[in-house]
Design goal:
Elements: E1 12-16, E2 46-62, E3 68-70, E4 73-91, E5 94-105, E6 122-123, E7 126-137, E8 140-150, E9 169-179, E10 186-197, E11 210-221, E12 226-237, E13 256-268, E14 273-286, E15 289-303
Antiparallel strand pairs: 1-4, 2-3, 2-4, 2-15, 4-5, 5-6, 5-7, 7-8, 8-9, 9-10, 10-11, 11-12, 12-13, 13-14, 14-15
Amino acid sequence: MRISLLLTTALTAAISLSGSSAFAQQTGHYLQGLTGLENGSTTPPGLFVTYLPYVYRVDALKGPEGNTLLKPDINVVAHNNLFSVTTEHKILGALYGLEVLIPVVNTRFDANLFNISSQTAGVSDVFFAPVVLGWEKGKFNYLLNYGFYAPVGDFDPSSSQNPGLGFWEHQIQAGTTYAIDKRKLWNASLLTTWEINQSKTGLDLKPGPMFNGEYSFGRRFDKYKMNAGVVGYTYHKLSPDSGTGVNPLVAGNLDRSFGIGPEWKYTNLNWHLGFDVRYESQFGVQSKTSGNVFVFGLTFLSLTPPPHK
């Protein structure tokens, strides 16, 4: 079972760098490698409240050819709070739901920019998905979602680190999960995420559109309570940042990254709880930070019982 995650990045940073700053591409709101096993499925009818800590161990800043520009010592920690509801109401044959994410952050990088003198705290940009649709057709599950990020987090155009990113963003997701065998033990999934960004507040700077593709392959154990397997992602900016505010050192660059690693999930309906642990190592990174990602999830679920026949 997938806890549907259309999330903004909420970052808390502890920074130790030898230099004052390094320049890279403007970041988007969606965090690479945040979803995993069976991420092409929506949740069943019910209420889901998820606390999702995210730890990013940054050990390098890569240039446009993948060369190492800096070797920073940065631990990034995210504290995300997700509230999602799936109803029994159907639209075009799909179950309808919605999601809200409220991230609480300490420091967030606006553009893979490091400044050891800048530390901020507050609520980051809030994400709202008014349309979450899920279909089940035999061995296949499908999802189609639309949401947006509202720039409610504090943003100072003169600072490289702010709780918010300072711009509105539209996000569209489409994905599928496939049950490989008849018993639906083996599963594979694919989730695509498309970010369409608006200009930053107070700056003539518009981040380019971005693509995320996340995939998984797993198997269920313990009477379907446990799901374990391999997950990965690919990220690529589709066109360069635009505007007079683009730093000449990175003008025209397209950042990218890949990641892969193991994941373990456990859901106990009697406890109304779900647990999730995931690790992904990044590789093939260009014009972007590089390191290792750790995700931990704790979900309270209150399922709606099926109607009596």
